[in-house]
Design a protein that fits this description.
The chain has 264 residues and is mainly alpha-helical. The protein has 2 domains: 69 residues; 169 residues, no CATH class. The protein is built from 11 helices and 4 strands; from the N terminus they run H-H-H-H-E-H-H-E-H-E-E-H-H-H-H. A 4-stranded mixed beta sheet has the order 1-2-4-3. The chain is globular.
Length: 264
Amino acid sequence: MFSWSKGDDRVAIVQMNAELRHAQLELLSAECAADRLRLRFSAEDIARYCERNVLRKAVASATALRDYYGEIARLVSDTNFMAAPGVSTFPEERVVAGIDRVRQYFSEQRKEYRPQGLPLGADQRAAMSLFFPAPMLAEVRVVVLRDHRVSNPPFYAEAKALGLTNLPELAHMASLTYEDVVIFPGEISERRLFHALVHTVQSKILGLERYTELFVRGFLRTRSHVSVPLEMQAFSLEAKFDENPGEAFSVEEMVRLWIRQNRY
């Protein structure tokens, strides 16, 4: 068993956590791939028409991963680690207050950055028009930060004191979306722009209040920014776009589908 007091063990622990983070990202990619499959095909269709050998291997891999991580979760001493999905360990009044603070922060950031933003360029609008409605693309403003990064919100310190230690560091985010304002800490790739615009569609259809509520409750449920359903959908659709940027599909339809299926 490792001990933090031993030098060699400390190195091994650091390496272990680096590999765990890598495995988590790979699992997220696999989850996104499964999510794209689920969006197009029912479980009944897959069971009836699948290649049996491929399905057998997929089920075996998923089962082995469930057993492995389940055993680790059983050994974790934190009693809140595996809180039931949809259940927050915080009092409801505190959750509601937190949602309001995050909503206010989103609104303030939009107000601050929108005057600095520029419309999408002609090439960007052309590339994104296969996936997003033209009126929305016309409203979007883009801010590229050259000499600074967005700081963490002032309420982060309080949240971390309450045990929320896995909050995303905004300075390291590939993009930030505040309704119809998207911010990039450097050059804009089409893939990053697509991801940011998915959040614009989500917030537009859901409304800022509902979007914020779903984001906060999703984070409190999963304790991971990338595992919040709103974020998972953005990653999933981003991957679909990256596979074939010339194959049109409607992000708006995908968002409305998830709303109907109560997947947020």
